Protein: [FeFe] hydrogenase maturase subunit HydE
Amino acid sequence: MSSLKYIDELAKNREISAYKLEKILADDECNEYLFALANATRKQYAKSEVHLKALIEISNICQKECFYCGLRKPNKELKRYKMSAYEIIGYAKQAASSGYKTIVLQSGESQAFSDELMCEILREIKNTGMQITLSLGEKSYKQYLMYKDAGADRYLLRIETTNKALYKKFHPNMSLKNRIKCLVNLKNLGYETGSGLLIGLPGYTYKIMAKDLLFLKKYDFDMVGIGPFIPSKNTPLSNEKVANIKLVLKANAITRLMLVDINIPATTALESIDRQNGRKMALLSGANVIMPSITSGKYHELYSLYPGKFRLDMSVENTYKNFNDMLFDIGEKVSLSNGNSLRYNERMGL
Ligand code: 5AD
Ligand code: SF4
Structure:
């Protein structure tokens, strides 16, 4: 049976049952309709404006062992690095002068940077006037508070999947409970909070995916990043299958229909699977943010979460210009606002 009426129900009510969501996911006949509705919703709220946010991969050191990730601690083949504060601040200044309004600092999960040093870096970057997004993994309430006080505005922490069995299987020594606690702490501290999913891990089903998507709705995140699983070498999942890209686009579109005014990045992993169209397809199915890596090649290559991670081999300034032109070509433009989601502004009364 066609899922058309369920898609209409979702677009109208902004919510739907897990059962009906599963039906939408399993049926590919109405994909174009779903994407078109999500795109129209994005345009209605975000007005054909796309946020460009500069990503700096500050360290690939990680203490965790997520089965899918090339940065996992047991991967002894990988050369580890940690940027100096001077390098990070240098990148941030270049980003600011190239036009970026937001800088995203991402790393594996570790204490490679002491909290004091991280706070110093944040305070320095804050002087550029940019908004700061962090993606440093699970930290304590106290650490999140310290970073916030030092100038961090936003935090990204994907839930990956809410299925207990899968979560346990692929995340040794981690707990779903703690991850949710971190997300709640971030929200309570006033961070613009982002979460997201890793689609297509071995054993993933439509049923699990439907529940994962409803979790994003329930927790009412300000930002949601959804990417495909890509098998990475030197990991226990290196011989598994790459995720279905259509399914990731559908997840983006469904998220847009449920959470109309949040920020949704066109994730790099999508572009890594499809160089020509990955990001454009994501925009056309509801995404409104692009986060180009501005980290130089020598570090970017070592930040190998998965193979083929995409990065334009250009200066920081030219990367900005390149995306500016790409967006112009598809009738969009770069947003000149600070990059907050409309959802967050409304939630905080801004
Ligand atoms: N394929 C796709 N995404 C991955 N990530 C880590 N490893 C992989 C992989 N093999 C994603 C996780 C994490 C983010 C930083 O990178 O979802 O949250
Ligand atoms: Fe570390 Fe994040 Fe990779 Fe897990 S996904 S191993 S926490 S970098």
